Amino acid sequence: MATYIPLIYFLLTLSWVMLVVGYYFMKDFTITFLTGLFMMVLGIWITSNGIDNSNNLISLSVGLIHFGAGAYVTIRSAVDLIGKNKNF
Predict the structure, then answer these.
(1) What are the residue ranges spanned by the domains of the chain?
(2) Could you give the dihedral angle defined by the CA atoms of residues 27, 29, 31 and 35, in that order, rounded to the nearest 10 degrees?
(3) Is residue 27 within 8 Å of residue 8, measured between CB atoms?
(4) Distance (Å, whole) CA 41 – CA 38
(5) Residue 87: per-residue pLDDT
(6) What's the distance, Cα to Cα, between the start and end of the chain in Å?
(7) pTM over cut 0.85
(8) Residue by residue, what is the 3-state secondary structure of 4-71?
(9) Of 12, 8, 25, 21, the residue nearest 65 (C-alpha)
């Protein structure tokens, strides 16, 4: 089996960088929404496959934290996007 450790670390870093750039610097809720979805998918993948194909408590915790953070970011950015585009 191939190990995906560098890929996982790159995707984890990319998701958090996209979150910081999209929400704090650009204030773009669409990019933040997509980042939240990406974090949720990454969290599910880490929870099911683990990091370096080892499902231990640390990889389960990292996956669940990313899924929860992604869900929060997705809901928050969707609500902000709806509130910003409310025309009635």
Answers:
(1) 5-84
(2) 110
(3) no
(4) 5
(5) 67
(6) 56
(7) no
(8) CHHHHHHHHHHHHHHHHHHHHHCCCHHHHHHHHHHHHHHHHHHHHHCECCECCHHHHHHHHHHHHHHH
(9) 12
